[in-house]
Design a protein that fits this description.
single chain, mainly alpha, 2 strands, about 300 residues
Length: about 300
């Protein structure tokens, strides 16, 4: 792991500790936000908007991390369906990994490089930071909200995947390693297969941007672009299919959770927001498992 990436990880971990100590992971985060919405945001200064959005960013992370404590029956059913699907994929991880790696040489180099660079944390945060500063400078509430959702979701899901990597210590494909080879708390990069960081960041971004637009073709375009990095990790033999599947679900769940929180922080945007949203669900059937999206 290079130095800059390590710094990002340390920052996210330290930030999570602050959230744990200040938010208490309670429902009060959502309730309090009802009275915190800025009025007449066009009249606020750049620094006032940044201060407010920083609170939204931190609150979004706290809210997203706290959701399992507030899950109800249907949420647990979705978790059960997700884990069942992951278990089914786990049984064919070795075969699917071999299949994807055989396709690698036939994939154009530009697509392989896109898959790597788009999901890289350094590139991700530079782009998201620039997008936020631009939206705040032009006082665009819609794009500020979207930028905050991008940053908060990426940081929350990134934190979860970093902790999970350490705890699970799952071996990456290659060099004779098997899907059931685990070394928890290993510092070796060869045992950081689950979850897939590139999948988490790339699909989180794509999913957020897809929610920003109403046109179904634009939504589908972003989802397609966001799917390339996860698939590229399979081509390169860096992750198992079950890793990518669970990482994608993690991205979707995190975005949906924080998006709900931000609805209360950005009241004007919420009032103008169309009723039709994209939604995703995990479905099990007689022929297998799938992720169903509604645009």
């Amino acid at each position: 792991m290079n130095t800059s990436l390590l710094r990002i990880h340390k920052f996210i971990i330290c930030l999570s500790l602050v959230l744990l100590s200040t938010s208490g992971f309670s429902q009060d985060i959502l309730n309090k936000s009802l009275s915190d919405t800025l009025d007449n945001q066009e009249d606020k200064t750049f620094l006032e908007l940044v201060k407010y959005d920083a609170g939204s960013f931190l609150g979004g992370m706290g809210y997203g991390l706290s959701r399992p404590a507030h899950w109800q029956g249907n949420d647990w059913l979705k978790l059960g369906g997700t884990l069942t699907g992951a278990l089914l994929l786990y049984t064919v991880d070795e075969e699917t990994s071999e299949f994807f790696q055989r396709q690698r040489e036939g994939v154009p180099q530009v697509i392989r490089e896109y898959g790597w660079y788009y999901g890289s944390p350094q590139n991700n945060y530079m782009i998201l930071g620039a997008a936020y500063i631009t939206s705040a400078a032009f006082k665009s509430e819609k794009w500020r909200r979207t930028s905050v959702l991008l940053l908060s979701s990426a940081s929350t899901a990134g934190l979860i995947q970093q902790i999970a990597k350490t705890f699970t210590g799952r071996a990456r494909p290659g060099e004779g390693r098997k899907p059931n080879d685990f070394r928890p708390f290993s510092k070796e990069g060869a045992y950081h297969s689950f979850p897939s960081g590139h999948t988490v960041l790339a699909f989180t971004n794509a999913y957020v941007l897809a929610k920003h637009f109403d046109n179904p073709w634009i939504k589908a375009g972003f989802i397609t672009l966001g799917a390339i990095p996860p698939i590229s990790r399979l081509w390169e033999g860096d992750h198992w299919l079950s890793d990518v599947f669970l990482s994608t679900i993690l991205s979707i769940a995190t975005v949906e959770s924080i998006d709900h929180y931000l609805d209360r922080r950005y009241k004007n945007f919420h009032e103008k927001r169309p009723d039709k949203k994209i939604s995703w669900d995990v479905r099990l059937g007689a022929r297998g498992i799938g992720i169903t999206g509604t645009f």
